[in-house]
From TrEMBL:
Protein name in the entry: FAD/NAD(P)-binding oxidoreductase family protein
Organism superkingdom: Eukaryota
Organism in which the protein naturally occurs: Forsythia ovata
UniProt feature, compositional bias: Low complexity: 45-58
Chain intervals for the UniProt region annotation (Disordered): 45-87
Length: 546
């Protein structure tokens, strides 16, 4: 039988409360002094499995199990405040949950978030023989920021977040290979490049290969778990409460219980994750999550009757995707029709436009209820940005026959701890997501895989030496480099490559000298920075500093 220990008026609580004053000190959660808080028989006597072994300051008072029906206490306030400020305050003052009992022989993991990272985590847990349930809010499908929108009956299609990706890691390459065999991905052969205001276009090199979902990104997400046998998916489901009880985590959606688990994975971020963690009993995890900064991005999906007059470059075809430079309201534009449907040069075209992060910050509204006036203003500004980028006169583009704006309020991470995953073995809870390693689909996948393997190793150990499995709970964050819509490891413009070539390896000092080594490291750092390999960048920086 597993037990968890929690107390509200104890010396331990005071240490936990002191966390915000010492945010960078590696404070370990206090070891439970079992006899003080709990009658020891409760911890180990399996005959008590159904007893309430939740600790309270009054040992004779039996705590209640997590509520299943919110109407039982309708006037009770939710356990977390609704404002960000309230959420932050709560998460710093909460006490640490400590699971002390042995890990179950047949553990089940609850994964909250069915984006790339949560799905990769479930897949890799399955590879290690561990059951999991993925909860996701998606109404139309899994995938989170791998969204594809299809509009019927017009047959319009838009990738409305992730556009394409590059591959550098062998484990991610394996996943992409699998998609490729199933006919779900292919290389994007169309021209992509950088577009300066006024219509000046420079293509990016065709290497490394750029990949896209054949029918958009969402089907890739839907396929990840298609051949698994010990993964459940619950969707749409908005997990709103995490409660530790009797050695398990209980998850619920608006008071309705949705399962009990031996460990939990938070595979999402932003305001929702901060709220969820604010009163969960995981202060270290909550603190790391709160250090994360996220940008916002406006997406404009627009379908035009006639093709947009897109510039080409020398012998290249007119571009299909472009990183836009020098325009406030625009950072990316892509022709979904060319990318996903056909290469014909006439007929309607579906375009995805993304704003810059700065523009989104200046025009931020609640993403769930965008005021009509804001939608109109943003659409107008972004379409003007398109005209400006293409070097066209104002109002020369015909009004799209379909358009829709969406705000990605928590679009992309702007800082990262640069570690594949976070795991709190005391609380049997972990975090995965793109932001742990970067801001790309590859980063998200690698993070999910890493956390799955870490949890599997922890379970395999029986949970007897928890301290050995604590990871990422105190790492500092570093700013992330990249485009407004994320990182594309390996992809650099010709200008960046030229800049790189202008570095020359020093040859005047003796081989192996400190100076030569430092200069070589500096060159490698420049390469890592240009190619947005943030983990390599940080590691090399650390080596040089040392
Ligand atoms: C505009 C934009 C453009 C991008 N372009 C690219 C690109 O071209 N190439 C690239 O590689 N990357 C791109 N990215 C980044 C890429 O999409 C992300 O890095 C990646 O999808 C993140 O995956 P994730 O699993 O970490 O998070 P997410 O995809 O955000 O998944 C989290 C999931 O958790 C769910 N969730 C949240 N709260 C709860 C809850 N309480 N209960 C249940 N479920 C919950 C969410 O609904 C979501 O489905 C882009 C991102 C944006 C916003």
């Amino acid at each position: 039988m597993a037990a968890f220990i929690s107390s509200t008026k104890t010396p331990q609580t005071m240490i936990c409360i002191s966390l915000p004053q010492l945010p960078f000190l590696p404070i370990r959660s206090p070891k439970p002094t079992i006899p003080f808080y709990i009658h020891s028989s409760l911890t180990h006597n399996s005959s008590n499995a159904n007893n309430n072994n939740k600790i309270s300051t009054n040992p004779h008072k039996k705590p209640k199990p997590p509520m299943n029906n919110p109407s039982r206490n309708p006037r009770k306030k939710p356990s977390y405040g609704t404002s960000r400020r309230s959420a932050i305050k709560k998460s710093f003052s909460q006490e640490q949950v400590v699971f002390t009992g042995p890990v179950s022989n047949d553990p089940v993991v609850g994964i909250i978030g069915g984006g790339m990272s949560g799905l990769a985590c479930a897949l890799y847990l399955e590879k290690r023989g561990i059951k999991s349930t993925v909860f996701d809010t998606g109404l139309r499908g899994l995938g989170g920021r791998m969204g594809t929108r299809k509009i019927h009956p017009e047959g319009l299609i838009f990738d409305h977040a992730a556009q394409f990706f590059t591959v550098t890691d062998p484990k991610f390459a394996e996943m992409v290979d699998d998609w490729s065999k199933k006919g779900l991905v292919r290389q994007w052969q169309g021209t992509i490049g950088e577009l300066e205001a006024g219509g000046q276009f420079a293509p990016l090199p065709t290497s490394p290969p750029r990949y896209i979902g054949v029918n958009g990104m969402r089907p890739l997400a839907d396929s990840i778990l298609s051949q698994t046998s010990v993964v459940d998916v619950v969707r749409p489901c908005w997990v709103s409460t995490l409660e530790p009880y009797n050695g398990k985590w209980y998850l619920s959606e608006k008071g309705e219980r949705c399962g009990q688990f031996d460990a939990i994975v938070i595979a999402h971020n932003g305001k929702c994750a901060n709220k969820l963690l604010a009163s969960s009993g995981l202060p270290l995890i909550a603190r790391q999550m709160k250090r994360l900064d996220l940008s916002s991005i406006w997406a404009l999906l627009a379908a035009f009757e006639d093709p947009l007059p897109v510039p080409s470059f020398e012998s290249a075809f007119p571009f299909e995707g472009a990183f836009v430079k020098g325009i406030d309201s625009l950072s990316w534009m892509a022709n979904n029709t060319k990318k996903l449907v056909s290469s014909q040069n006439s007929g309607p075209e579906c375009w995805t436009f993304f704003s810059t992060a700065m523009f989104a910050k200046q025009n931020k509204v609640p993403q769930e209820s965008i005021p009509a006036a804001t939608a109109e203003k943003v659409t107008k500004a972004m379409l003007e940005g398109v005209e400006n980028a293409l070097g066209l006169q104002k109002s020369s583009i015909k009004k799209p026959f379909y358009s829709r704006v969406q705000l990605w309020g928590a679009a992309l991470p702007t800082n990262s701890p640069g570690i594949p995953c976070i795991f709190d073995p005391q609380g049997r809870a972990g975090i995965c997501g793109d932001w742990l390693l970067g801001s790309s689909l590859e980063a998200a996948a690698l993070s999910g895989m890493a956390l799955a393997n870490h949890i599997a190793d922890y379970f395999q150990s029986g949970g007897t030496c928890p301290d050995e499995f604590a990871v990422g709970l105190h790492n500092e964050f570093h700013p992330l480099q990249g485009h407004d819509i994320g990182q594309f490891p390996g992809l650099a413009s010709q200008g960046q490559l030229d800049e790189l070539a202008s570095f020359s390896l020093p040859c005047s000092c003796p081989r192996g000298s400190l100076r030569r080594q430092t200069e070589t490291f500096e060159l490698l750092i420049a390469v890592a920075e240009l190619c947005e390999l943030s983990y390599l960048y940080d590691t090399l920086q650390d080596v040089v500093t040392e």
